[in-house]
Amino acid sequence: MKTSIEHKLWLLAMQGHITPDKSLLKTPEQIEGIRKSAELNTAVLDHVAKHIKAGMSTADIDKLVYDYTTEHGGIPAPLGYEGFPKSVCTSLNNEVCHGIPDENIILEEGDIINVDVSTILNGYYSDASRMFAIGKISKRAQRLLKVTEECVKRGLAAAKPWGHLGDIADAINSHAQANGYSVVEDIGGHGIGLEFHEEPYVSYVAPKGTEMVLAPGLTFTIEPMINEGSPDFFVDEDNGWTVYTEDDGLSAQIEYMVLVTEDDVEVLTK
Ligand code: MF3
Ligand code: CO
Predict the structure, then answer these.
(1) Which residue's CA is the nearest one to ligand 1's atom 2?
(2) CATH assignment of 21-269, given 3.90.230.10, 3.30.559.30, 3.40.50.280, 1.10.3720.10?
């Protein structure tokens, strides 16, 4: 016999909506494991928040993340992931994402940096990132951080059980554009929980009512990258990872990991 969720998904698929495969809808037991992983991930970010300061290298952030995660029974998910050499992504100023920690990259007063932490605990994956302002930052950088946070919050507010991923994207993209900013295309969020990157791919530039149906049990990230200038970017040719803005403008990103329940979309990484 089909559950009512399966029946609803079947009907929506018949109507042409993109619906998640049943394997993407987590069981209560899996959700428990994912929640615990997300709690550790949040604690790692809190630990970074407590210690991050000017004069520190991004390799020092990597050490904070590696030590705290492993001391609490977890594994940093980025370490060795498709050859990524470090435990965390640290993306500074004009870096869009996937910055590699380096002992020669020193945080300076006025910098903005995204620290993107991902954790494996008992086989369950979690992922979240925050922006940090190092000392006093420019008005220009302050405005970008404020709008980026508003974008993610608006995206979350637009997320409703049985709505669509495109509802989130539309809320984010329209707020970014209203503020004269752009949203990066072709790099997006993702399903997460049993793997680091699962289906669905989560675009932040899709129209309302399009993309996958938000069925209860789905776990994914909301992690738009907001550029102050053009959305264009390029990847570092030497290290193959670090993504930079094409026009050298600032970029910011905040990442939440969420769970769709029967009556809510809950942030697991608070
Ligand atoms: N946390 C990043 C994401 O949003 C991870 C990128 S893969 C890594 O998916 F290897 F760089 F960590
Ligand atoms: Co992510």
Answers:
(1) 116
(2) 3.90.230.10
